[in-house]
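Hey everyone, long-time lurker, first post.

I ran two proteins through the pipeline my lab uses and got sequence/structure pairs for each. Pasting them in order. The first:
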Amino acid sequence: MKYSPLLLLSFILVACSDPQPPINPESVRVFEGGVGKVREIVADGNLAVVVHDEIPGFMTAMTMTFGLREDSVRHAISTGDSISFQVSFDGIDAWISRVKVIH
């Protein structure tokens, strides 16, 4: 089986790339006051689609996909849960860094 040089280069670049660059803790902003409902857990539990109210200082109410980087957050929530949460944002990615299931 023959592979084109461009295809091989693509595989090499993907294999050598770092999917998440190291985070500079000084560049991460934290936003309190997120409240919403988990619509879906996706990407093997690494992302949550959340329908949320306004997050003060960060964004208006919307449906958004947030990263779930910590096991404690991943294991705390399920589809359909109403949650209050904290969002961390490094200028590129936003993730739920603290969560509480509310009833």
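...and the second, right after it:
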Amino acid sequence: MNKYKDIACYHVAAVLPVTDALFVFPYLRYLQCKTTTGLSLDYLGDRKQIERDIRHGAFFITNHRDIVMDAAWLSFLLRKRYLIRPYMGVGDNLFAKRWIEVAMRYNRCFAVKRNCGVHAQLENARLLSEYIRYLRGRGKSIWLAQREGRAKDGNDLTQPAVLHMLTLLDEGDFFQNVKALNICPVSISYEFDPCDYLKAREMQLKRDNPRWRKSKRDDMESMATGINGKKGRVVYRLTPSINPEIDALLAAHPEYREAPLHDQLEAVCRIIDRHIHLGYEIYERGTEFEAYIESRVAMIDIPDKDEAFLREKLYEMYNNPVVNHRKSLKVES
């Protein structure tokens, strides 16, 4: 009996090259031409070092911009350049229809279970941690977003709970266990986020009613908009493994080895965040950007529409990456 059956992707490695060539790659190229003005894979720092980091399998952690395309395009770009197709963890809320679940599991997506009780969450986290450790033990590359759900305001910060889940079953030195994952952060930058107006809409609905929750229909709308909406120039930037920075942290602050787990998690999260923030592509925003924001506000149709609040949130989600990038540059210098 396969204990990973409920979360694992399908074992179809032998036929993936065929379906990639016949269906997946042509469709992603079509989306690239239809929805972007350019899609590129770039590097932060020494490209050869980054390539050495990922040669025997890497754990790619990225900021989270889009429900579907974050993982799809990273897999596409890595497959084209390095013949790597990472296993990808996605929330099971995306499996709204059976055919979507089949398609995603077929394309090396495994399920991250959500919206369950506290006890079930812990059990699911243990099983997921074990499955990820099983994949890394076989030298497989993995992709996972840095947080559950997208950062609606563009303030991309790694959730310690994600890192905790990855090391949940490990014993011994926490930092050595993190290094064994070989975490290579990746920055994802969209010139325009096709879901920006939907995110702003969600923020007002939650502000007005803290108990408001997205429905399956909302998830489907976000998926469709994220896939088919205009994005401008899209840049995926690979950054080096965080392992040397963990070593540098411990050399400068050996007290972290004996620190509480929460402090250790926070320290590693800050390293991941700095890599991601430094790797952002910073886009020039001219005067026409104001007209773009106004057009997005106009697309939002909700009761008691607060245009000033929506406008503020739209600007915020585009400004926060710039602010975080500049802060990280100051830390580097």
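Reply from user beta_strand_b:
Welcome! Quick read of the second one: DSSP finds 13 helices and seven strands in the chain. The chain has one domain: 25-332.
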